Amino acid sequence: MAYPAQLGFQDATSPIMEELLHFHDHALMIVLLISTLVTYIIATTAPTKLYNKFIMDSQQVETIWTILPAITLTFIALPSLRILYLMDEVNAPHLSIKAMGHQWYWSYEYSDYGALEFDSYMTPTADLSAGQFRLLEVDHRMVVPAESPVRILVSSEDVLHSWAVPALGVKMDAVPGRLNQTAFTVTRPGTFYGQCSEICGTNHSFMPIVVEATPLKHFEDWTSLMIQ
């Protein structure tokens, strides 16, 4: 869950998000080292009166400033490609959920449980209970079992939307006429908030996403209650 004046990412709640946080720290360290080196060079060379304005080229310097950036970019690209392919993998999910974007709400369909489907609208401010979050609460949450691989199929009934939950490291475009898929595993029980991340019209900012992860026993009880 995000909080005011937050400088970093939300706490990771899935293996993919943990990988993304590690990559962020890795890339940020490289950027910090480069910035420190450039600042040091500027600080030491700017005030000096020793210079040679007749140097037109230097094969050695050009070789160095070509090879070093290439090596640096390689150290950034390799971990990035690894995570990119990990995010595309969907291995033996225990549950499949279909999320459909509408103007301006989400609908969910649990195809593994027959007729279990429902719409999820934002809870109006006037209907919020104490402790609930404005513009983030919904009337029906998407409930998933914790510590179980979940596949989510994302599409749209009208315009472009995007199903995104930062704590899970998930952002998948909802395109009319196209079925996109991604997968995640929630590592702990809890409630995680997201929003539509593609501008989709007047009420784009009023179609939040709430994912509630529960132990498997509680999830089965919830599905039984919803099907009745």
From TrEMBL:
Role played: Component of the cytochrome c oxidase, the last enzyme in the mitochondrial electron transport chain which drives oxidative phosphorylation. The respiratory chain contains 3 multisubunit complexes succinate dehydrogenase (complex II, CII), ubiquinol-cytochrome c oxidoreductase (cytochrome b-c1 complex, complex III, CIII) and cytochrome c oxidase (complex IV, CIV), that cooperate to transfer electrons derived from NADH and succinate to molecular oxygen, creating an electrochemical gradient over the inner membrane that drives transmembrane transport and the ATP synthase.
Record text on cofactor binding: Binds a copper A center.
Coiled coil regions in record: none
Pfam families membership: COX2 (PF00116), COX2_TM (PF02790)
Lineage: Eukaryota, Metazoa, Chordata, Craniata, Vertebrata
Entry membrane topology: Multi-pass membrane protein
Protein's cellular compartments: Mitochondrion inner membrane
Record-annotated membrane-spanning stretches: 26-43, 64-87
GO CC annotations, alphabetized: mitochondrial inner membrane
Domain Cytochrome oxidase subunit II copper A binding: 92-225
Family of this protein: Belongs to the cytochrome c oxidase subunit 2 family.
Annotated organism of origin: Brachionichthys hirsutus
NCBIfam families: CoxB
Name under which the protein is recorded: Cytochrome c oxidase subunit 2
